[in-house]
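WP5 quarterly update. Target: histidine kinase. Source organism: Halarcobacter ebronensis. Length: 483 aa.
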Amino acid sequence: MENLTSLKVTYSIVFLSLISWAFFAYFTMNQIITTQEIYAKLINISGKQRMLSQKTTLIAKRVFETKDNKLLSHLEELILLMKDEHQFLLNNLNTQNMEDVYFTDEKDLDKEVRGYFELLDNYLKNNNDANIISQIENYSYSLLPKLDYAVNKFERESEKYTNELKNRELFILLGTLLTIFLEAILIVIPSIIKIKNTETKLKELNESLEEKLFEQKEMILKEQEEIKQKEKVFYEQSKLISMGEMIGNIAHQWRQPLSVITTIASGINLKLDYGDKIEENDLRNFTHNVHEQANYLSKTIDDFRNFIKGDQNYKKTKISDVIKNTINLVNASLKSSNITLETKIEDDITIFGNENEIQQALINIIKNAKDSLVLLNERENARVIFIETKKINRNELELTILDNGGGINDDIMDRIFEPYFTTKHASIGTGIGLSMVDKIIRERHKGLVEVKNREFTYKEKNYKGACFIVTFYKRIMPLPTLP
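Structure tokens (predicted):
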């Protein structure tokens, strides 16, 4: 207990010494800096007065020659500035030597400068008087060496005062070094001894903490792996839902070409049944049509396969190509629901991204619009989706997808991108689609997706619908792939 009390007393003495030296050093250095700043400003302003005395004379002569009102206004501003700065110099004459320069009979620089101001003021009242111009010019020539003398005097005074303050700096340095030495003897050494006594305890405590941290790290890694697996499942769920939608789209797209092929086959069989001769040209036309329809079916298979394949590579991707491929996949399904697709894809941008992921996000938005449009009464309302691109600048593209399905309730507008949040019946809504849109656009491609309700007119009728705004940014660095 006695050792602790003694150590506290020593700490207090050294601490008070350090505080005292700190305040002394602070006020001394502050005085040095303040003085240097004032002298620097005085030297600068006195030099500026010298320059302004010549500049005002030249401008006054120029005004007399040109009668330019703008130059006259500028001259008035310079005269006012010169007067203000002269007053500043007078207010900061902190030595007798400088006061002698400005106020003694030998120099009396203040009187000389005020005489120059008086000539300038007379000229402003009558700027057509050549005699005043001559007086100003002669006066400025005689004033210049006196102003030079004042500048030199300020510089010598500054140097003198700075040398005096530097002696104080040396005194502060020696006192600070002594205080530090006392601190080392009276505080540091006893503290080192005390620290050594506690090192063993700290080492034991650290070992215990390391074990706990290792356990916490293992737990965090496990949780991260679980989150990663959940994201993977979440993505796969969204993919499966999109696949189901695509299968429906494929069915719609295949109906017409299959109908054409069956019609051709039925026509051939009918002619054969009635014993009609099949001409070579007819047969070629039949086979040509069958070949075209088969190619169309093959392309839809390729489009579907590319989407299902789920290429995870990020590469240079044109947004217009992604939009067009998306439309090819969903167009037949939209037509079967009597939904009109209005597109304006003129502006384009190339980003570093994953075409498959972006395509899935756009399909989810369009499906959301379709689900709201099929509820509309076709006799009373049109069913329409608008897709438009707009280039904000060379590195930014805005894609809007707008429908006329009535919009989204304001109460749930902030929640539609939440995972598993849906207002639809369980048979058509899972709450995954729009959440996946947000993840793909915002997290995977560092873009922006937002939604708002918009009122508009289409074919002379007013509508309201949900408007999804997707913003893409051009990037040159690759982005992380999905798990």
